[in-house]
Design brief:
single chain; mainly beta; Porin; 1 helix
Length: 314
């Protein structure tokens, strides 16, 4: 019985995907991440150069495990200060796959940081990106009883679209707040003459957090991320993690009306960190008969040169 329900749910998901693909998409959502505190660069270019050190981040997310065609995302971010004071640069690569659709995004990030006083800084960033879209309709289970659908014979191969974004990021050793719009341009992927239209709309991000020292080497680190885009509900992620002895971190995250997550992390050395999160949907989608939850793994390596550590370590 469980297998039957799972199969039905998979077909419903594919039908919804096809329906939205063959109609106007006014708010094509960008990839989402539970461990957003370790992935700030992907949505705010002003974060590049944070802590004044080189940093390499790799992330993998498998969403709705057990559902055929569910989203899978791989990400790599690198950032480093330049030889010019206050100027930092970085690049990012994101591969996002859902059903027959694969989107690859390559970004170049540049930020300039201004010291306001001995403990606070503000950074301004610019993001230049290239989006490449592929849609392989052969991966869909098509019904040929009435003949082939001519629309599904025209696969989308390496559809290229440039974009540009910007952000601002203010931070101290124990507090940060940022605002960004990673894509200003509304990208039209399909020609209106074929009545197929999909647009990447502007996404607005607001993120913030602080660190509070507790007793016995504990540091409490609450944070939030708010994302909004025209045509889609406001998305809010709330997270609270505890850092123990600057090594072990653990906590919970809640995406409003969407998912509950558990997070654990371990700082193996001054340079290397690994974090793991597991999500369960806070809707009917979270039922075991539908999927086994979502898994996210992040690896981070920081090329430290005697730089003072932030209480956030992100």
């Amino acid at each position: 019985m469980g297998a039957i329900k799972k199969s039905v749910f998979t077909k419903v998901c594919m039908i919804l995907l096809i329906f939205t693909t063959f109609n106007k998409l006014y708010a094509q959502q960008e990839a989402q991440f539970t461990q957003f505190i370790h992935n700030t660069q992907s949505y705010n270019p002003a974060y590049v150069g944070f802590n004044g050190e080189k940093s390499l981040t790799a992330l993998y997310r498998a969403q709705w495990i057990g559902v055929e065609g569910a989203p899978k995302t791989q990400l790599i971010n690198y950032s480093a200060p330049s030889r010019w004071r206050g100027l930092s640069m970085g690049f990012g690569l994101v591969n996002d796959k859902i059903g027959p659709t694969t989107e690859t995004v390559v970004n170049l990030d540049v930020s300039y940081t201004i010291s306001l006083n001995a403990s606070s800084q503000i950074a301004f960033g610019i993001k230049a990106g290239a989006h490449i879209l592929d849609i392989n309709y052969n991966l869909l289970n098509q019904d040929f009883s009435l003949g082939p659908d001519p629309i599904l014979n025209n696969a989308i191969d390496n559809r290229f679209a440039p974009n540009v974004g910007a952000g601002v990021f203010y931070y101290t050793p124990n507090f940060y707040i940022g605002f960004s719009v990673p894509t200003f341009l509304e990208t039209l992927y399909f020609d209106q003459s074929s009545f197929l239209e999909a647009k990447d709309k502007m996404h607005f991000y607001l993120n913030s957090g602080f660190a509070l020292a507790l007793s016995n080497g504990l540091i409490l680190r609450p944070s939030f991320l708010v994302k909004t885009v025209t045509g889609a509900p406001l998305q809010t992620d709330l997270s609270a993690a505890v850092l123990l002895k600057e090594r072990v971190s653990f906590g919970l995250s809640y995406r409003l009306k969407a998912a509950v997550s558990g997070l654990v992390g371990y700082q193996f050395s001054e340079e290397f960190f690994i974090g793991i999160s597991y999500d369960r949907a806070a809707t009917d989608l979270g039922q075991e008969i539908f999927n086994s939850g979502s898994l996210e793994v992040v690896l981070k390596y920081q090329f430290r040169k005697n730089v003072a550590r932030s209480n956030f370590s992100f």
